[in-house]
Each structure stands twice: as C-alpha cells, then as structure tokens.
Predict the 3D structure of the following.
Amino acid sequence: MARELVKFIFGLGYPEIEERCDNAGSMLQLQRLVQKCLLKNEMKVTSTTSSMGDHGDNARVEQTVHRLRQHAMVILQGVEQKIGHSIPVSHPLAS
C-alpha cells in the first residue's frame, strides 16, 4: 500500500506534501513508510496525527472514503451492465 501511495504522490508532481492520519496502528505504520520513501527521494514532508477520539480531525478522511466508495460502486455497476453479469463485492471499501 505504501508503494502505491508513494507512486500516486509522485504522480501529482508537488514538491512537498502534508500527511494526515489518525492514531490507528496501521495508519501510523503506513505514514512512517510513506514518509521514509518520500524523504529518501528528497521530497519535503510534514506529518500531523489527529488526537485520540477527535472525530473532527477525521471528518475529511471519512468523507473522502465515503465519496470514493460511492464512485467505485457506480463504476462497478457500469461494468456489470456492460458485461451482463453481477460481480460479487467482498472488498472492505464496498462494505
């Protein structure tokens, strides 16, 4: 996941980024891995971590996940209509 995220960040072409994440262990590990790769490639990185239980800090991320989920389901429905078959969805983002 970190590798794909780093490729996406480089594809954006910005000289610096700000990482924001919550205090979940998996997110903190992902933040560290991404930051390590970016710093190795001399990109300026600022990292912020939200406070425990602060839902306001996570609102933007949760809204982004919600929007991505909606877009993914629309694309999936279009693919199903084109191929004429239902595609079973078991990925966590579609839950």
Notes: The first strand starts at residue 16 and ends at 21. The two ends are 19 Å apart (CA to CA).
